[in-house]
Amino acid sequence: EAGVVQSPRYKIIEKKQPVAFWCNPISGHNTLYWYLQNLGQGPELLIRYENEEAVDDSQLPKDRFSAERLKGVDSTLKIQPAELGDSAVYLCASSLRPEELFFGEGSRLTVL
Amino acid sequence: AQSVTQLDSQVPVFEEAPVELRCNYSSSVSVYLFWYVQYPNQGLQLLLKYLSGSTLVKGINGFEAEFNKSQTSFHLRKPSVHISDTAEYFCAVSVTGGSQGNLIFGKGTKLSVKP
Lengths: 112, 115
Fold this sequence. Notes:
CATH architecture of chain A: Sandwich
Number of domains of chain A: 1
Low-confidence stretches of chain A: none
CATH topology of chain B: Immunoglobulin-like
CATH architecture of chain B: Sandwich
Radius of gyration of chain A: 13 Å
Number of helices of chain B: 0
Strand content of chain B: over 45%
Distance between the termini of chain A: 37 Å
Low-confidence stretches of chain B: none
Number of helices of chain A: 0
Largest sheet of chain B: 6 strands, mixed
Mean pLDDT of chain B: 92
Number of strands of chain B: 12
CATH topology of chain A: Immunoglobulin-like
Oligomer: heterodimer
CATH class of chain B: Mainly Beta
Helix content of chain A: under 10%
């Protein structure tokens, strides 16, 4: 069974440019999460979806970040415009049960 | 609100020695507890979890952890480590109702196993 797939794995952009990350969860997993992992820190939740509905986006900086999960399967996280402080790893996870999350390998963003 | 404190940012240990990675949490409600491992340039993999029942939990790769409610701790242990255990380990909590699955992570402990 395929795991959570994320792309791109690495992205380098200049500040003020837009960037998008894509996540394909494990088949059948209704719940999808985006986490932000800064260097030397643990992951922090950005947004959680139940099917196509964002049920918790309280930590998502809505001035520059947006996310969507059309059709309740794969999801896209966008940053526009990117700032230097957005350099981090963006992790996607999915779950069938809330007590067991499966994480993708992450998308590492470097903003110059 | 919940919080997690991992008491050691780095733990160096020799191969075949025992290791303990410490985790304390703070919460006013019941929580589930987890340990995840992250190998370089990879995502997080679940090692073990405590949901209820026996306070001693066994996970993959020979790891185990003990939930201590009175001390609000969930320390991870392995009796004999291998070079391949070199990785970063994250302790996490989630509430038992409502926002289940919204994990709150500690800052991580880097385990370095030396030959």
